[in-house]
Every structure is written in C-alpha cells, then in structure tokens.
Amino acid sequence: MPLPPSQSRKIPEGAYTFTVSEVPTKRKHNSGTDKEFVAVGFFFRVEDRAGNVYKHRESLIPWNPVYQDILIALGGELDEKGNAHLSTMEEDLVGKSFGAEIVHEPDRDDPQKTWARIANIEPPEGREEEDVPMPNGNGEQNEEDPIPF
User: Fold this and answer.
1) Domain presence at residue 142
2) Residue 147 located in a structural domain
3) What is the mean pLDDT of the chain?
4) CATH number of the domain that residue 27 is part of
5) N or C: where does the chain have the smaller number of CB atoms within 10 Å of the terminal CB?
6) Residue 95 in this model has a pLDDT that exceeds 90
7) Is residue 145 included in any domain, yes or no?
8) How far apart are CA 28 and CA 37, in angstroms?
9) DSSP letters spanning 33-78
10) What residues make up the domain containing 120?
11) Please, which pLDDT band fits residue 126 given cuts at 50, 70 and 90?
C-alpha cells in the first residue's frame, strides 16, 4: 500500500511495529575535531495497530543505547562485552521486525521543530530486559573500545 504524502513526514506518537525495509547505511562524519565517527541509518516500514503505515529513518551512532537496543531486538548476538554488532547481521536485517514507540523530541536549535524518535524498544521474545547487559557494564563507549559494527 503506497504511503500518503502526509504520512511520510510526521508519525504520531504511539506504539508501532517497526520492520527493516532496507539494508542499513553507514556514513562517516567528522566531529569538528580530528576524530571521525560513523553514523548508521536504519530505514523502517512502521505500522500501527489500526493498519496505518508510515516510513521512518533513524540515524544513530553506535554508542547510542537505542542503536544497541535495535540490534538486540532484531536478534543480534551479544559479544563478551555485551555489545551487538551490525557487521554480523547486516544482510539478514531486511524484513525483521520489533515493537517500539515513537516519541517526539524537540530540536535543540529550533524549538518550533520536533523529531520523531524510536523509544521503549521491546526486548526480543524469550529475553527479558534484565537479561540484556549494558555495553561495557555502564552503557558508555570507552575510547579504547572499537566502534561496535
């Protein structure tokens, strides 16, 4: 079913099923210093309980907790540090789904704008949220740790 033009931009807040619609993309960015980092773009077909369908793109840096939550919800295996890596599952993601909510966050620079963001990602079936360890034990990226791809 094609998306109406109005639904491709603003997804109402609420609970949805997110289905990966394309292989995630990786883009290098410069933080304004000599350090480069990679952001990963996820593309989703999003459906609410009433059958309304939307498109959503989420661009995340690997040390963002939502990035790890998405990979875990899509069946990513955890390494010894408790991280899931995109590189071990990248080609198998298209068509996989998970449940989560869309929330609207205000833009830092323009209070008139809001951004739709994924929040409250449901853990995969058979795995409780407490069973999923936080990366590096505290949820933060250590400088000496490789970026989890």
Assistant:
1) no
2) no
3) 80
4) 2.40.50
5) N
6) yes
7) no
8) 6
9) SS-EEEEEEEEEEEE-TT--EEEEEEEE-TTSHHHHHHHHHTTPPB
10) 9-137
11) low
